[in-house]
User: What shape does this take?
Amino acid sequence: MEKYEKLEKVGEGTYGKVYKAKDKATGQLVALKKTRLEMDEEGVPPTALREVSLLQMLSQSLYVVRLLCVEHVDNKKDGKPVLYLVFEYLDTDLKKFIDSYRKGPNPGPLAPAMVQSFLFQLCKGVAHCHSHGVLHRDLKPQNLLLDKDRGILKIADLGLGRAFTVPLKSYTHEIVTLWYRAPEVLLGSTHYSTGVDMWSVGCIFAEMVRRQALFPGDSEFQQLLHIFRLLGTPTEKQWAGVTTLRDWHVYPVWEPQNLARAVPALGPDGVDLLSRMLKYDPAERISAKEAMDHPYFDSLDKSQF
Ligand code: AMP
Assistant: This one.
């Protein structure tokens, strides 16, 4: 790791600390992520190697944070090898960015054209991952990094969700946020698919418009209640099989509310796209590729992406 000069800690992700560092030879800024891989004398587990090479392949997309290289270091303390992932460095993430509009010196809404552009890039990145058979499973504003000057959004923390199953608590015992988690995951479905990411995309879309989370639950149960209160308690008619899911209980019965009221700054096309991302039945949820062709994006110059 002598190749890099560690500058500062920029974040604490689910899997470990993230440092901003400089490549001493080239001056390039990078983000160093230490993985908490359980390794033995045999070295890196093949599953992790597969994930890392998949991540490297996927990060060829402009809308996925680029994995520049992987450094394999012997830990001085216990002699166990440690893997560092070296990513391109980006100046902020969508959470910090939204917060700056909420609490900054000039609070105000994000420009509608910016929301549209970020959402399009997010859909493009997600479509790219899904076309390679990779689910993200933990999309949230903290995982979407921004190049503010160029107006580019990139997906981070990708692929890790499979090699290292998404834990309920992070390594610092911080609760992993449930706000973007799809109802089928919350209800204990084990056969979930690309729809889980599209649910998260919908929650992130709404949050960019509202500048606050759409479903801010603090437990799995509360998370479901937040969702049911807005979208109505799901029925078998709407979502066949819902009452047979492992964690289904008897819930209060709520009628669906008008979704437009939860995102007052969003026009009818935006509300329509959002409602398709937040369909209860995962099979009915819009795909990332379909979303890119939705009329909400008609006014966007797609040739720039
Ligand atoms: P993560 O483990 O990806 O959730 O990262 C935790 C935090 O570290 C993020 O919310 C970012 O603020 C920061 N971070 C992660 N990756 C990068 C990167 N490539 N460039 C800059 N900051 C990053």
Notes: Strands lie at 4-12, 17-23, 29-34, 67-74, 81-88, 92-93, 144-147, 152-155. The chain is about 30% helix and 15% strand. Residues 273 and 294 are 7 Å apart (CA to CA).
